[in-house]
Amino acid sequence: MSHSSSSGHDSSSGHDLAGYGWDDERERSFTAYRAKGLVPGRVIGVDRGRCDVVTEHGAVRAGTSLVRSADPVELPCTGDWAALRPGRDPELAALLPRRGVIVRSAVSRSSHGQALAANVDVAAVVVSAAVDVKPGRVERLLALAWEGGALPVVVLTKIDESADLAWTVAEVRRSAPGVEVVPTSAVTGEGIDALQAVLTGTVVLLGPSGAGKSTLGNALLGAAVLETGAVRAQDNKGRHTTVRRQMVRLPNGAVLIDTPGLRGVGLLDAEEGLRRTFADVEELARECRFGDCGHESEPGCAVLAAIAEGALDRRRLDGYRRLQRENAWAASRADARLRKERADRWKAITKSMRTTTRDRRR
């Protein structure tokens, strides 16, 4: 476990599912499950093939063998709502439909995705002000957030360690137009109240190791619940002190999902997320003379005109193209895998039919 409490949440409030986001719509959709003797619960942590689930009767440790899937994205993850079979050996009987899910491409570079958090309302993209901002990383995380149905907020941490805070804030805002940017310091407390005001519903913290996600979480909690670690002085990188995704309740009524540091943030089927992340480029592109303008050297290109006038940073266009290429490559790999899986299934069916026919003839 990567926190000081035994279960990662306030167990005294386990009976109040509304405090974890349960609402009337979910209750109505759960009628058929209740008729089968199942109870609702929210997954607050997953590890070693089992998960911690908070229910209206308290927190339990449940098995997941009944909800296995060949697609890793469909496996239980922190934030999922589930129908639970209660008893001495609780089991998840089914996962309820998700209202969005934050997905990245698998770290293994396979064609599968990896679900980071489900049913998220706000994605807090955590960026350390103590080091140089990496705009490409900010844009990647914003694309993940938008694609997953979450409202992104950029949280600048460690502003007390920033060498040039005004420049850092401006650089982040150039990478996140239209997204709220909240500078904070867990040391001085600056910005924490302002951040509390925008974090509502289910919130997930996204960012690399060393960005200060767990420290930020503790500042929001008002207590040292999440384990934190030091950052290496030579490269300002942290080690993974959070080793799994975990959910805790915040004093303002929201619930927070802390995640391990993301070393790699590959995109997977994130076209809508990219369009929203680069809405400034998309808006300019609609003004181009040609509908299929490639923004290279075409006459009447509004994007190139904006770059020439200084209204758009050339890096934004280059970053958009790079992420589009990556997303298209990931999509092609997924398509190839699905085609192979379909072919393998047909081969198995054909083989079975031939065997059955042969047996009948004997």
Summary, kept brief:
With 362 residues, this protein is of the alpha/beta class. It is 33% helix and 20% strand. The protein starts with 23 loop residues before the first helix and ends with a helix.
Structure description:
The chain is of the alpha/beta class and 362 residues long. The chain folds into 3 domains: 11-95, Nucleic acid-binding proteins (OB fold (Dihydrolipoamide Acetyltransferase, E2P)), CATH 2.40.50.140; 101-258, 3-Layer(aba) Sandwich (Rossmann fold), CATH 3.40.50.300; 271-342, Orthogonal Bundle (Ribonucleotide Reductase Protein R1, domain 1), CATH 1.10.40. The chain contains 10 helices and 13 strands. The strands form 3 sheets. Strands 10-9-8-11-13-12 form a 6-stranded mixed β-sheet, with helices on both faces. A 5-stranded antiparallel β-sheet has the order 3-2-1-4-5, with no helix packed on it. Strands 6-7 form a two-stranded antiparallel sheet. The protein is flat. The termini are far apart. 39% of the residues are buried. Mean pLDDT is 85; it is low at 1-14 and 230-242.
